[in-house]
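Entry details:
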Amino acid sequence: MAPERDASRVATSPLALEGAPNVALDGTERRRQRPQDAIAQTEHDSGKKKAHTDKNLLLVNENTCKVSYLGPTVAGKTHDKKAADAAQIAYPTNATLDKDTGFQGYEPAGVLTRQPKKTQRPGVERGGQVPQSPHLQRTRGRRKRDCRGETVSDCQRCLAPDHRGYR
């Protein structure tokens, strides 16, 4: 069975309704030959891929992993959210829509949307500070390496002439 091409009929499509209505929306880009016309070149130039591309929206049923909607082909420069707004997709009732960050702010009516959040890196605290190790921790910026938890310029042992620390 072919994916639906008419956005208004997605809500009643058997591919979208198979299993629970859990769907994922994503924009996919395909490379194309560089247009000779300068205006067409700028339209199809994708800043992310650094190539000339065409873009389609895909709506995938997460239970069956089948494409239930294939959007119209648009220029690669078109933003994912703008293409989704223009398509006016009719989603199944009580559907759960997974989307990526390209659809930030896209909240269709009657649909629960989920967008991934960045996970916290292990060892990094809330303020973005990396906990400091007391001995010989590599530091950032122009400071030199630490000697027993202090910067080299503040360490009295490093200032002593007989100390073999980092200078």
The chain has four helices and seven strands.
